[in-house]
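Render Sulfatase in 3D.
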Amino acid sequence: MKKYIILTGLTISLLSCKNNQTIKEVESSPNILLIIADDMGKDALAGFKEGEVKPHIPNIDAIRKKGVNFTNFWTYPTCSPTRASMITGKYGYRTGVRWANQKLSENEILLQKYINDHTNNSYATAVIGKWHVSGYDATINPETFGIDYYEGIFIGSVKDYYNWPLSNNGKQSISNEYTSKKFTNLASHWIQKQDKPWFMWLAYNAPHTPFHIPPAEMHSQGNLPTYKEGVDPTPYFMASIEAMDYQIGQLLSSLSEEEKENTLIIFMGDNGTEPLVTQAPYASNQVKRSLYQGGINMPLFVSGKGVERKGTDNNLITSTDMFATIAEIAGVEIDEINDSKSFKSLFSEKKSIRKYQYSEMKNEKNDAWTISNGTYKLIVFANGIEEMYNLINDPYEKNNILNANLNTIERRSKEALETELLRIRH
């Protein structure tokens, strides 16, 4: 972050205590780098026991090892509702975004604007990469919501990583640069221009389909042939993750040491792995587009400025909690708002944040909700079907305990989950 301070005697005499305090707060505020991976569950990352084939990702691994790995982080089963919940701090049934391609209302106050409304406009804000919360309405982009700068993919995916529509604050063009590289360069260039603390929402579209071959220098999967249906897609999927990791390394290397020391990094997955590349113990119908753990229990790593702990934390966290947490990191005095609870305190100490976590989905086929207390998880479908799992004994949801008579503890747990579910949704 560039800093320019020019003081004259007259300027100094006119500065009030309040202004001095504002300057100090701005100078000490951390930069915030939020990195979102697309369709990448725990089975595709080191640090988790799920999955046998792992990519070579030294930069993402470093973020995990240097900070906190939150192992009980819940999102939504698809892209749009996860992002909408993060940026509003609200559950999908409140915003109307419960599935991919659904549109967020222009009346919503988004995280970036909320931060600047409560910190005297102290942060520069940008969204680079995948947006995907405005449906197909290109007139509603991040600028509409008060975000300073946007450039990336407006909708959910691209047909070709090397030939794709680039949106720049509502203007469309075609880019022939590999998406992960393009997003990294855009992020780096924007950051270098800032003269105050910044909040970068960097949403890669990798490793979302289509399966493809990234530039050779960015991956270790060897000389891959052009992908065709029927070929094992796993090496292509891993190559895409490795290319994203390579670009994350490029971005971090572009920061000065001072900038890096003052930057907090959040890395996360938005929803479960694509079924075609899902690995055991997850079943292919229990990952992306499902409310099972493989679809919503995603990677979340936090490291850098202000993170004093290392290792794993099993607190219950939901994607809505990103709103209050990032706002508090930015200096807003906030613990809870809407459906969002800040977990910033977990960067330095162990404590309990939530008693329950919630997720949901609604598309043309399914309407369902799920809630968990960390031990028991209840899934309720609108058609009346219910499932319940003991996540301690059965973490991959193979045994629906509602198929047998519940014992006293199970019955009381189900009643408590139903009560909380009713409270949340009403």
